[in-house]
Design brief:
The complex is a heterotetramer, with 1 copy of chain A, 1 copy of chain B and 2 copies of chain C.
Chain A: E1 7-12, H1 19-28, E2 32-37, H2 38-44, E3 52-55, H3 69-88, E4 93-96, H4 98-105, E5 122-125, E6 131-139, E7 156-163, E8 165-169, H5 175-184, E9 188-192, E10 215-219, E11 225-228, H6 244-247, H7 256-269
Parallel strand pairs in A: 1-2, 1-3, 3-4, 4-11
Antiparallel strand pairs in A: 5-8, 6-7, 6-9, 9-10, 10-11
Helix pairs in contact in A: 3-4
Chain B: E1 4-6, E2 14-16, H1 23-32, H2 39-52, E3 56-57, H3 58-68, H4 70-73, H5 75-78, E4 80-83, E5 86-89, H6 91-103, E6 108-110, E7 117-122, E8 125-133, H7 135-140, H8 142-158, E9 163-173, H9 190-208, E10 212-219, E11 228-238, E12 251-256, H10 272-279, H11 291-306, E13 312-315, H12 320-331, E14 335-339, H13 352-357, E15 363-368, H14 373-382, E16 387-394, E17 398-403, E18 406-412, H15 413-416, E19 423-425, H16 444-452, H17 461-464, E20 475-477, E21 480-481, E22 486-487, E23 491-493, E24 502-508, H18 511-514, H19 518-536, E25 539-548, H20 555-575, E26 579-585, E27 589-590, E28 593-594, E29 598-607, E30 624-628, H21 639-643, H22 656-671, E31 677-680, H23 685-697, E32 700-704, H24 716-721, E33 728-732, H25 737-744, E34 749-756, E35 760-765, E36 768-774, H26 775-787
Helix pairs in contact in B: 1-2, 6-20, 8-9, 8-11, 9-11, 11-14, 16-26, 19-20, 19-22, 23-26
Chain C: E1 2-11, H1 18-29, E2 34-48, H2 52-67, E3 73-81
Antiparallel strand pairs in C: 1-2, 1-3
The chains are: A alpha/beta, B alpha+beta, C alpha+beta.
The structure holds adenosine-5'-diphosphate and magnesium ion.
């Protein structure tokens, strides 16, 4: 399909707050992006009209109870079927930060056997509390997450994280099995890494939140639902990068290839 | 007391007979109703009712109480001050506003008028900025106090129809290692306050999604009893969105959170008959913030302002809706009638006067023309929040309050806004601090590491990273620089998609100097704020003044206040930097004494092209390092003296004319892209600034200290650690050095060394190495103290 | 009928509890002989149900649907009639 | 001797509890007949003390110095010996 025909739905709930930079990135990509309050989505929108759904970061409903939980359950209750259908059609669904938490709480991620009824993972309290800092993440996905296939495996992206609950965890009694599945299904997408690309091995602040196996982002086995804690939309332009005054100012930053790949994939696939 | 009788209404409503009351009776009435009014003010009110020949109601007296309070009316800054040299008629008028009026900058759009100061940015876009204090609430409940402080200042920005884009916070605590045994009863430990305040600011700012991009964190013994919390907010609006046009017939719309018993203070209306009713309801002494409520308000108000649906707006802060509604009516020469029973409540039972003065958070007041009312209410509803029309503006010049159809108050607005002027007295205390004498230490490298590890200089990463400074994707120069997280001088935002203009935000405060000399303390704060701004490329700077002071009822505190105000006038004027907004918090006294006089100066600058912004990290080996400005033996109040346990008396002064010239030249050099890195010299002096530039950039420095320009021959430790004002360090490439020197011509500057690949700070004097430290050791010293376990 | 349910949500054994650890360190710093702190959340829910049995199953549902994430949380409920 | 103390910290009456209110709305939104939710925190503290009496007074001190703010919080403690 043509780029300017691509329609992106960015949903927001009370407390969503990384919506404008995400909207800006999509619009700069030349696609149609719409930011809609989720109550309005429930009442007046048809998910079928969109090609991509994006859940931005923030503190939906104050992150009370658990990050992303209230919004996730509300969505499940109000448009659960439609969302599931959207995912089953293979269309890209992306959640960043709070959006990732929402995708875990709704059961779409890790989604070992499709959407699960109860969450199969969690994003727990970070080991050092709330942190806003730049990290490096390496793309480790081997191809299942097709929407990111224009970003080569092994690419290191510098992006900021800003969260208090982002420590990826699996149930203790199923940890080994689940982790193995994540690898076997090629569900690993981003891992926190050092400057040379080697894994953070849990070391703070290279791994900023204590995430299991340095996990920064994963996808479902089908590869079309993607969640990550770091914020590519906040690294979209060159002037947002942390060292542009010494390394030089480019138009785009490390977040650009992320969005670029998602849009290229959508153009090709649909 | 028989002067106060309950009316025949079913709800709580009292009538007060003021006719022929004696002074003693007035005082008694004030006490019974829990009013903070002075006798002079009570007499003024009595005389007013005498003319009207009617009884006052509880609601009316509460309204006077709120409006006349220091918080709402700034009596100390607007009243008379008797000094040995004559009487000053209003500190604000005589110094601060006068400075602004005389500078008369064409780009000042609205100053001292509204909830926030507003200046031009570019084309039809304006920037609004406000800084507030929230000291007392934070001392009682650090998390809630700091959070609601930030929430309050964000509402100030919403209150000029602007959308918030950034926050600042400046915090002052006692030393974190303060002994628990020494803490007086009722004073909370600095560590408890520090953790609570920082989490409170973080939680509110992060949740509402406004980046906190600049601030300062200061530690001093004098803050142990009086914690200081400043919170600031910056917002953007378009000229045509700044609608101030309330007309008779417009609705009073109350939006946001529900009204509860929060923040109804010091009420001693506990007569026997009342206690029974009030027992069940406890009054929250502190407030719990709800950032998500304010996030929804923010979205709705943005839409309303873009669509020009309101005719006026104000935030609800101190004094509750009583202040917001009456002020609005008075400002437009109108009257207003309000039905208090229409206000949505969160507590089941509230007396009308409580509803009227409640300070519940997250509420805004809008004036809405009848034709837009429905649309406005719907916009709030679509954001999942409430808005209610509770009254109407009219032409009567009166505020008329009704409760279930019964008129419970009628106040003449003119009488409310012309309170009698307070008179304060200012007098110096005869105390003199002395300059210490001690031998020059021989291991200056060790001293440098100790200074880097002192709480005031050490990395504030633990604070800064608790705040989201990246949200909205506009932060071009971040509070902490690069992967080594060095201390940047100021934050730069690029807020507009279609313009390269940047906003530069910095702050300055030097409380320790204030213990020696409040005039030079204020002057230094102004210079520091401006210096930090200029160092990253800011210009066309406007200033905000925030005073945190002890009780104005003591002549010595007043004297210090007068001195600081004088400096604001004289130094601000010399720098051509108008004051556009400010705030005072007085009565900061504790069992440990008054707060150190603390003037926070916030500087708002612009940079025409953000891509010229300069950070403080060294860029490349081989480049030259210049020192701008003159070094003097000015160590009074310095970190270096403090390290030795002294205060001293040689407080840094400044030569404004020279400073203005060198700042102008620096700006020219930045615009010519000659400056690769720049760092201001402040706490810890030259040596600390050199170390910070080096370890942030990961590059070494080889410095010849003989090249440092000083007004006299200085001892080496004084040379390294003096805190003389108006100095900066600048990195310039070899090939640009000639051009740079030409631009700097006529100002005090010298080339003092070169950037090297060797990761060491190498300082030499008379051909001998005097400091030679590995950068890794320096950064460790700097990073460790505040990173240590809580 | 109205019921009041206390719901205590605790982290499952095996997970580190950063908040608890910070609190524990802080208490140690104040001189207390603390060996560990676990933090948890609690909710007091007032709700309507036909009878006690129904109430119990409703609360259980609320816990599984919203109040807890079974990956990391254990929970315990106390119900009383109002 | 080692003791285990459960400390429940709740907001005093009269304080608004945004977390409780939001949770209550959320439960209503999911179709439950909830009339109110109050949220609170709890800590399980394992610590050493000479005897039970001493333990009780120690926990009380911890509560007042760190775990609660008496201005706005009420708290309740349950102690057991380990
Ligand atoms: N309380 C705070 N809130 C936000 N930012 C802060 C705070 N304290 C310090 N900072 C930021 O950390 C950086 C370094 O601050 P500081 O050490 O005070 O620098 P300086 O060298 O100018 O004295 C600055 O960018 C400042 O804005
Ligand atoms: Mg510093």
């Amino acid at each position: 399909m043509k780029r300017h025909d691509i329609k992106v739905l960015l949903m927001r709930a009370p407390g969503t707050n990384c919506d404008l930079e995400a909207l800006r990135a999509f619009r700069d990509m030349g696609v149609q992006a719409e930011l809609v309050q989720s109550q309005k989505v429930f009442k007046t929108k048809n998910l079928d009209d969109y090609n991509i759904i994006f859940f931005p970061g923030g503190f939906s409903y104050g992150d009370y109870v658990r990050s992303g939980a209230i919004w996730a359950k509300e969505m499940e209750y109000r448009i659960g079927k439609e969302l599931k259908a959207f995912v089953e059609e293979g269309k890209p669904v992306i959640g960043v930060c709070n959006g990732f938490q929402v995708l875990v709480e709704t059961g779409f991620l890790p989604g070992f056997k499709g959407k699960s009824i109860e969450p199969e993972a969690a994003l727990g309290n970070s080991t050092h509390g709330y942190q806003c800092r730049w990290i490096r993440m390496k793309k480790v996905n081997k191809g299942s997450c097709q929407m990111l296939n224009s970003v080569e495996e092994g690419t290191i992206l510098q992006t900021p994280v800003a969260h208090g609950e982002g420590r990826f965890i699996l149930p203790p009694d199923k940890l080994e099995q689940h982790l193995k599945k994540l690898y076997d299904n090629d569900q690993m997408v981003f891992r926190y890494c050092r400057e040379d690309g080697s894994p953070a091995s849990g070391e703070w602040p290279i791994n900023p939140n204590g995430a299991l196996d340095d996990i920064a982002g994963i996808c479902n086995p089908e590869g079309n639902v993607l969640g990550l804690m770091p914020h590519p939309e906040r690294a979209y332009y060159g002037h947002l990068m942390p060292t542009w005054t010494s390394t030089g100012l480019n138009k785009y930053g490390d977040g650009y290839p992320f969005f670029d790949s998602v849009i290229k994939f959508t153009e090709k696939k649909f | 007391m028989n002067r106060i009788v309950r009316s025949s209404q079913a709800f709580e409503h009292y009538l007060i007979d003021l006719l022929n009351t004696s002074d003693a009776e007035l005082k008694e009435i004030g006490k019974t109703l829990g009013l903070g009014l002075s006798l002079q003010e009570l007499q003024y009110i009595r005389d007013h009712y005498l003319i009207k020949e009617k009884k006052a109601t509880d609601v009316e007296l509460q309204t006077y109480d709120q409006t006349f309070s220091e918080h709402c009316s700034h009596k100390t800054f607007k009243g008379y001050v008797k000094t040995p040299d004559g009487t000053i008629n209003g500190l604000l008028k005589t110094y601060i506003r006068k400075e602004t009026e005389e500078i008369n900058a064409p780009w000042c759009y609205s100053v001292f008028e509204d909830n926030a100061g507003i200046v031009d940015l570019v084309d039809d876009t304006l920037v609004a900025i406000k800084v507030e204090t929230h000291n007392h609430p934070s001392a009682i409940e650090p998390f809630g106090g700091a959070a609601t402080g930030l929430g309050g200042v964000i509402r100030d920005i919403l209150g000029v129809w602007a959308s918030p884009i950034a926050c600042t916070d400046v915090l002052c605590f006692g030393p974190l290692n303060y002994s628990y045994e020494k803490l007086p009863e009722g004073v909370k430990h600095p560590t408890y306050l520090f953790n609570g305040v920082v989490d409170g600011i973080g939680s509110y700012g992060n949740s509402i999604g406004i980046p906190t991009v600049n601030g300062a964190t200061v530690f001093d013994d004098d803050y142990t009893g009086n914690v200081v919390v400043y919170a600031g907010c910056v917002g953007l609006l378009k000229k045509d969105e700044y609608v101030k046009n309330v007309k008779s017939g417009d609705y009073v719309v109350l939006a946001g959170g529900r009204t509860g018993l929060d923040g109804i203070h010091g009420v001693t209306f506990a007569s026997a008959e009342l206690t029974k009713e009030s027992e069940a309801i406890s009054r929250p002494a502190v407030q719990v913030g709800n950032p998500i409520e304010e996030e929804k308000l923010k979205r709705a108000i943005k839409q309303i302002s873009e669509e020009h649906l309101g005719s006026g707006i104000t935030d609800i802060g101190g004094g509750g809706i009583s202040c917001g509604i009456c002020e609005t009516a008075d400002k437009y020469d109108l009257g207003v009638s309000v039905d208090l029973d229409k206000i949505p409540l969160k507590a089941a039972k509230m007396a009308p006067w409580e509803i009227w003065i409640s300070e519940s958070q997250e509420r805004m007041l809008l004036a809405v023309p009848p034709k837009n009312l429905e649309k406005v209410i719907k916009i709030f509803k679509d954001e999942q929040t409430e808005a209610t029309a509770i009254g109407k503006y009219d032409q009567t010049g009166l505020a008329k309050l009704n409760y279930h159809g019964v008129k419970i108050a009628e106040i003449e607005l003119k009488s409310l806004f012309n309170p009698p002027k307070t008179t304060r007295t200012a007098n110096k205390l005869a105390k003199k601090s002395v300059e210490p004498e001690f031998p020059e230490p021989n291991n200056l490298g060790l001293i440098l590491k100790k200074l880097l590890a002192s709480y005031n200089i050490a990395s504030k990463e633990k604070v800064v990273r608790r705040y989201d400074h990246e949200v909205k994707g506009q932060t071009v120069v971040k509070p902490l620089q690069g992967w080594n997280s060095g201390p940047n001088n100021a934050a730069v935002l690029k807020p507009l998609e279609k313009s390269d203009v940047g906003i530069v935000i910095s702050s300055g405060l030097n409380p320790r100097y204030g213990k020696i000399d409040p005039y030079w303390m204020a002057a230094s704060s102004i210079d520091e704020a401006i210096r930090n701004n200029v160092a990253v490329g800011g210009r066309r700077i406007s200033l905000l003044d925030n005073f945190t002071w002890g009780s104005p009822e003591y002549p010595d505190r007043m004297d210090a206040l007068v001195e600081a105000c004088k400096a604001c006038y004289e130094i601000g004027k010399a720098y051509n930097t108008p004051f556009i907004s400010g705030k005072d918090s007085l009565y900061n006294e504790s069992p440990l004494g008054p707060v150190a006089p603390t003037l926070l100066i916030t500087a708002l600058g612009i940079i025409p092209n953000y891509s010229n912004a300069v950070t403080m990290d060294l860029k490349k080996a081989g480049n030259k390092l210049y020192l701008i400005g003159e070094t003097k033996k000015e160590l009074g109040g310095s970190e270096y003296y403090n390290l030795h346990g002294y205060l001293g008396s040689s407080v840094p002064k400044l030569d404004a004319l020279k400073a203005v010239q060198s700042y102008q030249n620096i700006t020219d050099a930045i615009d010519s892209k000659l400056i690769l890195s720049c760092h201001d010299i402040s706490e810890g002096g030259l040596a600390v600034a050199l170390a910070e530039m080096a370890f942030t950039g990961g590059l070494g420095l080889n410095i010849n200290l003989n090249k440092v320009l000083a007004n006299e021959k200085l001892r080496l430790d004084f040379l390294l650690f003096s805190e003389s004002n108006s100095r900066m360090l600048v990195e310039v490439s070899e090939e640009n050095s000639v051009t740079f020197e030409k631009i700097m011509d006529g100002t005090t500057y010298s080339s003092i060394g070169v950037v090297t690949k060797i990761p060491r700070l190498d300082l030499n004097y008379d051909g001998k190495t005097v400091v030679d430290e590995a950068l890794s050791e320096l950064i460790k010293a700097w990073k460790t103290p505040l990173e240590a376990p809580r | 009928m109205n019921f009041k349910a206390f719901v205590y949500v605790t982290l499952k054994q095996g997970y580190s509890d950063p908040e608890g650890e910070t609190t524990s360190d802080a208490l140690k710093g104040l001189g207390y002989n603390v060996s560990s702190v676990r933090s948890s959340k609690a909710y007091e829910v007032i709700f309507e149900a036909a009878d006690r049995k129904k109430a119990t199953s409703l609360v259980d549902e609320m816990c599984r649907r919203l109040l807890t994430n079974p990956t990391k949380d254990d929970y315990r409920v106390e119900i009383s009639e109002l």
